[in-house]
Design brief:
The complex is a heterodimer. In chain A, 33% of the residues lie in helices and 32% in strands. By secondary structure, chain A is of the alpha+beta class. Chain A has one domain: Aminopeptidase. In chain A, a hairpin with a 5-residue loop joins strand 2 and strand 3. Chain B is α+β, with helices and mostly antiparallel strands. In chain B, 35% of the residues lie in helices and 32% in strands. Chain B is globular, with a radius of gyration of 16 Å. Classes of the chains: A alpha+beta, B alpha+beta. At the A-B interface, strand 6 and strand 7 of A face strand 6 and strand 7 of B.
Chain lengths: 189, 190
C-alpha cells in the first residue's frame, strides 16, 4: 500500500489551529501570496481571530465533505503550507484549495509534490470521480504545476478579476478519476 | 440621452416584485413537487418542500440580502393579475471584482414556453449591468438544460468553461457548463 501522507519533499499533517494562526499572521503580510491564491481583497486579521476560526473548524471533527491538512517539509519539518479538499458527496466531486505561504519554497517542486498527495488522497481515500480547481491567469507557476499533476484546462471565465487596474481571467481545471489512474502506470495503489 | 425613465422592474407581460410571505410559499411549494423543475434549477438533490419550509427559506434569503449585501432577489409576477410565475436573482456578487452569478426559473410548467424567461432575463441583465454596474455576469448550467442554454446564447452569453462529468443523474455523468457575458457585449447588442 502507498503511503498516503508522505511524498518526495513534504508530508501531510493534521491542521493545528495554533501553528496555523501563527503562520497565517506572517503569510497575510505577503500580499503577493494573497493575490496569487485568492480573488477577494487582501485583509489583515488578528492571530486570535484566525486561531478561533481554525479551532471552530477543528471542533466540528470529522466531516465527510471537508478535509483540511497542513503540510510540512520532510527534511526540516518546516510548516510551509496547506491544502484542503471540499467534497460534494452527492455527485462525488471535490474542489481543491492549496497554498504555500512560505515564499522561499515557491518554484522548487513542493507545490507539485503537495498536489500529488492531494490527488492521491482524493481518488484513493475519498474515492471521488473528479477534482476541480481554479487559478488566476497571472499565476503561470501554478498552471505548470497543476498540468504536471494531470489537471486539464477546462476553460476560462473572461476578465472576472480586477487587480491593479487590470482585468484578468480565472482559469478552471479538472482531472477525472480515469485520467489520474492512467498516470499511475499500473503502480500498486 | 440619460435614460433613467426606463422602468427597471417592468417587462412586457411580467414584472419583478417582492416576496409575498403570505401567498408565495404555497405556490413555490407546488413547484418543488415537480422533480424536472428542481433538477433543471439545482444540482442539489431534488426534494419536495412544504410551504412552511419555503417560508423559512424566504426568511433566510431576506436575512442574506440584508447582512451580506451580495444578493439581489426578485419574484417574477404576471402584470395582468400579479400571480407568481418564477424567480430571478443576481447572487455571489464580488464587489471588488465587479462580477456576479445569475439565477432564473419559471416555476409552473404551464407558464413555460411563453417567453416569460426571455423577458425576465432581459430585465435581470439590465439590472445587473446598468444598475449594479457589474463588469460581467456568469451562469452555471448542467448540459442537459437545453432550454437555459438556448436562452443564454440568445442574449450573447459565451460558453467559457466545461466542467467535465461534474454531475451524476439518471445513472450517468453530465458536464456542468459556465456561461459568461460582459457588460460591453451586452451594451453593444442592447
Amino acid at each position: 500500500m502507498r503511503d498516503l501522507f508522505r511524498g518526495e519533499l513534504v508530508r501531510i499533517t493534521a491542521e493545528e489551529p495554533e501553528a496555523r494562526a501563527k503562520a497565517e499572521v506572517r503569510w497575510q503580510r505577503d500580499t503577493e501570496f494573497h493575490r496569487l491564491a485568492d480573488s477577494d481583497a487582501a485583509q489583515i486579521t488578528s492571530e486570535r481571530k484566525i486561531k478561533e476560526w481554525f479551532e471552530k473548524q477543528a471542533e466540528q471533527g470529522f466531516k465527510p465533505e471537508r478535509h483540511p491538512f497542513s503540510v510540512r517539509t520532510l527534511d526540516e519539518d518546516k510548516y510551509i503550507g496547506f491544502f484542503g479538499l471540499w467534497v460534494d458527496l452527492i455527485h462525488s466531486v471535490a474542489w481543491v484549495g492549496i497554498g504555500i505561504g512560505e515564499r522561499d519554497f515557491w518554484g522548487k517542486g513542493y507545490g507539485t509534490d503537495m498536489m500529488k498527495l492531494c490527488l492521491q488522497y482524493a481518488f484513493t481515500e475519498l474515492c471521488v470521480e473528479r477534482v476541480s480547481l481554479g487559478l488566476h491567469e497571472y499565476n503561470p507557476r501554478a498552471l505548470r504545476s497543476y498540468e504536471k499533476c494531470g489537471f486539464r484546462l477546462e476553460g476560462r471565465t473572461r476578465k472576472d478579476i480586477l487587480r491593479e487596474g487590470r482585468r484578468t481571467d480565472t482559469l478552471w481545471m479538472g482531472i477525472l478519476r480515469e485520467e489520474w489512474l492512467q498516470m499511475q502506470n499500473g503502480d500498486l495503489i | 440621452m440619460f435614460d433613467i425613465q426606463t422602468q427597471l422592474f417592468e417587462g412586457q407581460d411580467i414584472r419583478f416584485g417582492p416576496i409575498d410571505h403570505e401567498k408565495d410559499p404555497e405556490i413555490e411549494s407546488k413547484w418543488t413537487h415537480d422533480s424536472e423543475f428542481m433538477r433543471l434549477m439545482e444540482v442539489n438533490p431534488a426534494r419536495p418542500m412544504s410551504a412552511a419550509m419555503i417560508k423559512k427559506q424566504y426568511e433566510k434569503l431576506e436575512k442574506q440580502v440584508e447582512e451580506k449585501k451580495n444578493l439581489y432577489y426578485f419574484t417574477i409576477r404576471a402584470k395582468a393579475d400579479d400571480r407568481l410565475i418564477g424567480k430571478a436573482a443576481v447572487q455571489w456578487i464580488e464587489w471588488t471584482n465587479g462580477n456576479g452569478f445569475l439565477e432564473l426559473g419559471i416555476g409552473a410548467a404551464e407558464e413555460r414556453g411563453k417567453g416569460y424567461g426571455t423577458q425576465a432575463l432581459r430585465l435581470l441583465l439590465r439590472f445587473a449591468f446598468a444598475e449594479l454596474n457589474l463588469f460581467r455576469v456568469s451562469a452555471i448550467v448542467p448540459e442537459y438544460n437545453e432550454g437555459a442554454i438556448a436562452l443564454l446564447k440568445k442574449f450573447g452569453f459565451v460558453q467559457e468553461v466545461c466542467r467535465r462529468q461534474s454531475l451524476e443523474r439518471d445513472g450517468r455523468r453530465w458536464d456542468l457548463l459556465v456561461f459568461g457575458l460582459l457588460n460591453d457585449e451586452w451594451r453593444n447588442q442592447a
